[in-house]
Design brief:
Elements: H1 2-10, H2 27-31, H3 50-53, E1 65-81, E2 85-86, E3 100-111, E4 116-123, E5 127-131, E6 144-159, E7 164-184, E8 187-209, E9 212-219, E10 222-234, E11 237-249, E12 252-260, E13 265-274, E14 281-286, E15 291-296, E16 302-312, E17 317-326, E18 349-361, E19 364-374, E20 379-384, E21 388-408
Antiparallel strand pairs: 1-3, 1-21, 2-21, 3-4, 4-6, 5-6, 6-7, 7-8, 8-9, 8-10, 9-12, 10-11, 11-14, 12-13, 13-16, 14-15, 16-17, 17-18, 18-19, 19-21, 20-21
Subcellular location: Cell outer membrane
Protein name: Outer membrane protein P1
InterPro entries: OMPP1/FadL/TodX
């Protein structure tokens, strides 16, 4: 057991939260507004996506509506070394550790009366699939990681009057993690775990007039405890140990607006706050031994702003565009490089989205969208006492492309 705990204290202790790093909690994935870089999501409801984005906005849906979306998330993570030494002193930088991940979501909203509406949503705010390979210089920290999150939202809204509506949604989120590490050529480890947590989604919607609307949403934070197994492979001999890992999904507050300035042009905006200061450390517990390892994160809350537009080109075609900015959970990314980890180093995010909506008939429309995300160039300087240091920088970005279809019954 002593042989096992020594590498685990240095390596498996660094298991962290890639799906919930700021680079991959992408609200526009669930809210289906990547074409405007997240702008306006809490203020409008053009399909059934409000069952996820703002339950109060379901009051705008007049008939039973089904919405489905297919997306591809292309994540690029490129590491360049800058003087690593010790056990991190190899010559393989891991290439592009990112990958393309397919995503999908389904939404349904059904008005129950002129006051009440009910909605269901099956969606994800993101995930990560990262693979550096077993022979890159940081493989003792992480070789590969796959983390997927899926949320199920059941929501109701109540229309107080012609201007005000409120909504509440019950959220259940499943998170699944698979991580591998390679300590030496003949010694590796795999951690596989899952968790289900529950929360709420609150919404408020205010209709100033037909051309001006405001929306406010609050999503509760989720504290996952991923329970599973650590499997140690040593020269072909396997050993398995129970383990659990704490994982944070932050509380989110979002304020959005929609303003029809002319019969062709509309302005959309969003402001939001994410409670990332709750993510001060990651805690791994080895149940067999009772040993607990804390990994400092020291993150700050993040803030974001986005601005978008709709332009009605013809009666059937509408063009969309948006830009957005999100602060880093590490306020000074360079100075806090010792708090970065190769699961998914974080930095400021710049979003640029565009797309088009085609209204094929009164009962069917389709939206095409693409969004580019500049995930920054974070630096990493991780020191493992007695084992050396991993020192380098990243050049990270991502793209989302997809199609959304709305059916009205």
């Amino acid at each position: 057991m002593k042989f096992l705990l020594k590498p685990l204290a240095v390596a498996i202790a660094l298991v962290s939260a890639p799906s919930f790093a700021a680079g991959t909690v992408l609200g526009e994935l669930g809210s289906l507004n990547a074409s405007t870089a997240g702008a306006g999501s809490a203020a409008i409801s053009e399909g059934a996506e409000s069952a996820f984005s703002n339950p109060a906005a379901m009051s705008l849906v007049e008939k039973s509506t089904l919405t489905g979306s297919l997306q591809a998330f292309d994540l690029n993570i490129k590491y360049q070394d800058n003087g690593s030494y010790g056990s991190f002193g190899g010559d393989n930088d891991g290439g592009n550790a990112g990958s393309v991940t397919p995503l999908g979501s389904v939404y349904w909203v059904n008005p129950l009366s002129d006051k009440w509406a009910f909605g269901l949503a099956l969606a994800s705010q993101g995930g990560a699939s990262v693979d550096y390979g077993d022979d890159w210089r940081g493989a003792s920290l992480i070789s590969s990681i796959d983390l997927v999150t899926v949320q199920v939202n059941a929501s109701v809204s109540y229309k107080i009057n012609e201007q005000w509506a409120v909504g509440i949604g019950m959220v259940s989120e499943y998170a699944s993690l698979l991580q591998t590490q390679q300590f030496t050529q003949n010694i590796g480890a795999e951690y596989e775990a899952g968790s289900v947590e529950f929360g709420v989604n609150l919404g408020l919607h205010y209709t100033i007039d037909a051309d001006n609307m405001l929306g406010l949403t609050v999503r509760s934070g989720l504290d996952h405890t991923l329970e599973g197994d650590v499997k140690l492979d040593r020269n072909g001999n396997g050993e398995t140990y129970d383990a659990s890992l704490g994982l944070v999904s932050p509380a989110i507050v979002k304020l959005s607006g929609y303003h029809g300035l002319t019969d062709k042009f509309a302005l959309l905006w969003s402001l939001d706050w994410q409670d990332w200061s709750k993510n001060q450390s990651s805690v791994l517990i080895l149940d067999d031994s009772g040993r607990q390892v804390n990994v400092d994160r020291n993150w700050d809350d993040t803030y974001s702003a986005s601005l978008g537009m709709h332009y009605q080109l013809t009666n059937q075609w509408r063009l969309e565009f948006g830009v957005g900015y999100e602060s880093s959970p590490l306020s000074d990314t360079a100075a806090n490089a010792f708090n970065q980890y190769p699961d998914l180093p974080v930095d400021e995010i710049i979003r640029i989205g565009t797309g088009a909506t085609y209204q094929a008939s009164d009962d069917f429309s389709v939206n095409f969208f693409i969004e580019y995300l500049d995930l920054g160039s974070p630096e990493i300087r991780y020191n493992a006492l007695g084992y050396g240091a991993l020192s380098g920088s990243y050049n990270n970005d991502a793209a989302i492309a997809g199609i959304t279809m709305n059916w009205v019954f």
